[in-house]
Amino acid sequence: MTHWFHRNPLKATAPVTFNYYGVVTGPAASKICSDLRSSRARLLELFTDLNCNPQMMKNAADSYFSLLQGFINSLDESTQESKLRYIQNFKWTDTLQGQVPSITEDEAKEVHRSLKIAAGIFKHLKESHIPKLITPAEKGRDLEARLIEAYIIQCQAEAQEVTIARAIELKHAPVLIAALAYETANFYQKADHALSSLEPAYSAKWRKYLHLKMCFYTAYAYCYHGQTLLASDKCGEAIRSLQEAEKFYAKAEALCKEYGETKGPGPTVKPSGHLFFRKLGNLMKNTLEKCQRENGFIYFQKVPTEAPQLELKAVYGLVEPVPFEFPPTSVHWTPETLAAFDLTQRPKDDSAKPKPEEVVKPVKEPDIKPQKDTGCYIS
Length: 379
Description:
9 helices, mainly alpha, two-stranded parallel sheet
């Protein structure tokens, strides 16, 4: 969805050769290292391949991680770690410190599922692997709890956006759309809260995006809640709900401008220029005018001074992370293969000599030119 979802830069990683001279003592171990090099290289290539689809990415990731499992877990499926667990250090850049506008139903489902899978991967890392790090993640770094939590929630929120767009296209009941929009706004608020104690110099742009999406979907919730109230002959309350929708929509517009002017990691998206954003403005205006017209001719109800409380609960469409597990250990890992890695021959680190800080080159992301904006249409 062109210019709609904010994305931080792709994480770059330092080259890893998997060359363990002296440690590798046989052809089976040598093949494992060779396959790790090639499968890692293939996976990294796909990150910037515009022709890559989710199945290609999954196959490449499974191929690499099945080989990497032998460096992580014991081959006898016990809770013990592999003897090779700490043989290799990996280095990445940090997120903060260091699509087409018209999509088919199949593509929408693919986006929806991919975001749920991403949330599941982040959740799995948070619960099962990050606690095992020998050096705790530094504050503000990608593996730190606040950032991982923000990523999990943002993936859930964006997946629910697809659900909302689909519900609107299928003309589902306004009460259902309002509840989904309200839940989605709450997701964005929670993600923003997770980042609230981070240094603004790093997190301001990301937080502006989360805040504007929170305001946008709160406006959606009030707009569709107003339609529900009107259908229940509560015209005065409907007018007040739509007035509140306009207020939050104006906030979202202002935040879009602030977001575009805020410096920070990641490309700047342009949600306020998207048809899905603009259509809400027209929907609010037309619905409010209808309510005011009918109140003047039929209902003659007083418009409350206080906005109605949104106590909406979605009964379907809420997104949960898809449970994630690493693929099984590659069949190439056998006791004989593991025995062919002799850690006693590993070169000793000369910790007395200071090592120059390794520079990791940023990932050159493909330049996707925005197409003519036909809106967030799901057919």
